[in-house]
Fold each of these.
Amino acid sequence: MNVSKYIDHTVLKAETKEVDVKRYCSEAKEHSFFSVCVNSSYVELVAKELKNSDVKVTAVVGFPLGASTSETKAFETKDAIKKGANEIDMVINVGALKDKRFDYVLNDIKAVVDAADKKAIVKVIIEASLLNFDEKKKACHLAKEAKADFVKTSTGFSTGGATIEDIKLMRGIVGSELGVKASGGIRDYETAIKMINAGASRLGCSASVSIVTGAKENNSTGY
């Protein structure tokens, strides 16, 4: 299996420098990754570096806590799209979900979907490691109701990343209508394949080059 087109090549650490972002863009073009995922301050640079390539630009919004206001998330979304983002990965307000303030969570997601205005794909990060079973289900239903395009497991900055169980649960809830993005802790080819086989249609990875290198080394497996 060609995993490259599943991968959002991700560089989000606070200490990220321009040279790091440029390297990730170069790697993304070389290995034909789906997108490069960055904090919004780097969107303009990434759009410039990826110009005339097939690699998309993904910006995170409300990252990593999800606790900024809906208005702030909407502004960040519009600004990122204006600067060249094709996809938006937004973080839900986890505390509001746990408070069962479901209308707030729904409207928070809708604010980003409306701000994107079909000019960019919207992925909803539910931060599954902080949620119980029922909360995970509810978050997926709310993302679906808000007409987002994807649900995503994790920011990679919390207590855990993607699990096979969460991918299966999320895919079971959203069906074929939404994409499912596995993110956090995917560092090798075998794990990437397991996530895809469980139902992931996109992978958020920082170890992307190692993953595709592993794929080449494991061609005999039949993937």
Amino acid sequence: MLSIEITRECPLSCSGCYAYDDGHLGGKTTLRDLSDFRGDALVQGVLELVRRHRPMHVSLVGGEPMIRNRELDRILPALDEMGIFTMVVTSGVIPIPEHWMKLRRLRVAVSVDGLPEHHDERRKPATYERIFKNIAGRQINVHWVITRPMVLAGASYLEQYVDFWNARPEVDHIWVSLYSPQKNEESAQRLRQEDRELVADALPRLRRTYPKLLLPAGVARAFVKPPESPEDCLFSKLSTNYSADLRTHVEPCVFGGVPDCKQCGCSISSALHWVRDVKVVGPLKVGHLVRASLRVGLVAKKLRGDSTLPNRWQPGQRFYGQRAPLVQIQNGTGASGCS
């Protein structure tokens, strides 16, 4: 899986946006400080990354990727012809071209964070009214990030949201994530463990009533116990993520910075974390096959002299904000200490 932040620009100023956090790209630079591309340079740059990595799926994000809609008009048909499944993740602030709906391998996901009283304040100018206008006659997925104020509003709030978007003719699926904080973050959006339990209990019941709610078996419970670290996360291992200069890796996952993995609410990460423990034959699990495949891939890349490995695939790497592990030092008398 390949994720590309195709632009540093966005007309929104959403609270809690990980892409514009100072630590998103490791603390040495920020998304807004990077040089990004337009026109032929962006089109060719994105297609070159796809040819190099040969992913099964590409996510085009930002910033607001629809700011580069003219370039997307050329990128998306090319990816479709290459047999690549692609998702454009947008706020819905810019109209979605109708002719994109003819592309067989494209999905457009529109982020709608709660009912209007929460969403419109957090994501203006991408308000409900504007989204309705810009998705009219299109087919989209809705991406919903659940935050703590929504949980505190009660189980009826969650059902009102799903009921509303399930009834919209433009919506194919409703895709759910939980708010994913950075380490040591204290914010109103961050869920507590009891909030995650409530959501995990509510979502399967809603899925039985509202068929557009996308909730693979086991994923709701996976929200309660996410991966412990990037090393424990299949999504982190199976994805490569680039920022707007098409060179800088976003590490250790799409969130960048220092994500609090124990509080992760990423729906893809949760789904893969659940799938990891599914048994294939006897004691053999999906996770065993994935780890073996990754080891083979690493060896193959080294034999080819490929030096573009993401840091998280290289042994001993630490990420922004991580401290070095303590080292045990033993003296001649057998006493030990730490440094």
Amino acid sequence: MIPITTFAGKQVAVFGLGSSGLLSARALAQGGADVVPFDDDEKKLADAQAAGLKTRNLSELDWSQVAALVLAPGVPLTHPMPHWTAALANKAGVEIIGDIELFCRERAKSGVQCPLIAITGTNGKSTTTALIAHLLKSAGRDAQMGGNIGVPVLALQPFASGRTYVLEISSYQIDLAPSLHATVGILLNISEDHLDRHGSMENYAALKTLLAASVEPGGSAVIGVDDRYTRAAADRIERAGRQVVRVSVLAPLRDGYYAQSSDQGSSIVRSVAGKAHPVAQLAGIGSLRGAHNAQNAASAVATCVALGLDLPEIQKGLVSFPGLAHRMQQVGRKGKVLFVNDSKATNADSAARALASFSDIFWIAGGRPKTGGIESLAEFWPRIRKAYLIGEAAADFAKTLNGKAPTEISGVLSAAIDAATRDAAASGVPEPVVLLSPACASFDQYPNFEVRGKAFTDIVLAIPGVAGATP
């Protein structure tokens, strides 16, 4: 845990006692602050008390004595309306911050020697974060990974010479981190998301852009420029005098990193003043298959070059990257048949990335449907050899696919895997893929996408003759 000493001797209110909020309260207390934690959930209050924290209803607090309110990122700050604790803080003129801000202030005080890599974007930030951390570790660097990716930032190891922090940052967290100044700030892409929280697309895009715009002096902003919001951001940040490294998977760049396809597979190319040369190969790396992963890889390569890694050690790390569980995760093989767990694809847009990455697909889809169904995936129907439909969406998905691709209503995941495995093995196609990419929420049959993905993995690995896949 990273103790937070920047509020020593001051009273700090903490609301939202999930994993990050509880750690914030403990880190502040360890650093000498007078912490007043609270939550509307009685169980979380009990957990805080069991951890030795003295809780108190923040509505009873004298806010004139409070130095800051540390708000959990999931608690509304402005939209659709401020949470009651935020309203009290605003009325008293108390600043509202989050755990990322606590980290940044402590780093400015005692960890300036530690590089900070901060990653945001609507899509791909978890994979990019994990890939950068993996590349650093494989090159022998001390890399601490956390933030929105699952490990709260204050749970990481304290600041030490030679240690690099690689943090996934959500828009919710950026909103609560005014001192976020990264060594390398990465903005992958921006598309419509979380508008209920931010009020408008303009507000959402501005927050995402802020992470890259606020890199520390001498730092770099690595920006994917394949959408209009990020292109505008790159130009604006560059005009402000920051170093901008552009990344594209759609077109070559005169200056920057871009993906290039050839008969040998995909590669990452770096261009300086129009002079281009390959810097990394992605061919044969199953964990980085697809255009979306090429963007993730190009951003990671650009970051690691900026941090001083050489190209051979970067390439070595790319080849050994295992990928993230439930995100186009190669689970195993039986003969030519590849089994892929993409349980994280809980809507059609997410499933599109997997469907675009393979040619002969035995597709397991369904669950609790999202608005719009799978009509937007029509361009991928020719890739689907057969669909095996499960859960509440099965009947509707069968209607959508009628006349477009063969279907079978399997009902449950185990039956879908059995049928897809049989048909893929008998298909005779060169590279059959049994793909779980549901385009649906899991909640009709599983508590979350992780449990659904683990069920897929467990069933596949229990099939006689299946060998666990390598990256």
Amino acid sequence: MNFEVSRFNRHGVWAIYRFEIARAARTLVQSLLTPVLTTSLYFIVFGAAIGSRMQSTSGVQYGAFIVPGLIMLTLFTESMSNASFGIYFPKFTGTIYELLSAPISPAEIILGYVGAAASKSIILGLIILATASLFTPLTILHPLIMLAFLVLTAATFSLFGFILGIWATGWEQLSFVPMLILTPLTFLGGAFYPINILPPIWRSFSLFNPIVYLISGFRWSFYGIADVSVATSATVMLGAFALCVGTVSWIFRTGYRLKN
């Protein structure tokens, strides 16, 4: 991909970005209200019903402990769905060929779609954080690191969703990966519990789950507690981001499922 700054088509990027943001605004209930209500239900069920029966988890009140995991769960899902739908719909309608023939580079196309999806997810994550503060008192020990994890995770999963949207050949495939792969990995990734309470064999198995590292690092920015080291979490996130960037670069270089 060509990232020449002197020829950067900011108008093309802004047009794609604005279109995707406008699409989300037209479906405000689905894009915003539904995730907020879902998160509130998680707090009612897990935070109130279960949390009231538990004194603390890793020295943190259980309701507060699950907040980073719930934010990440929403961030994963929304980033992937927004980015995958954003690029799949032009493929479905055939307007993708107009986009590919326009005077805009692959890097600018990616920046427009992925930037819009990541922006929506970050805003939603901050709204979920504000909603969570209504249910339980929160402490953010490292706010800058928290924002860094939030932005990097949203960008990575938006890129992954972009790849998914190009790979998919039908609407059912857009929901296949989030429902059958991502959601189970998230629930098994320490979103609602520390992995050190698991039996040794399952604890070792969890270390192969990349979601564990993302949630662990994000939770550390809140409370200073983590299942794995923060450096390891950051390394896994940066590695996943680099892998997604490399995959998207290969897709545009080869025209995989774009030119046929």
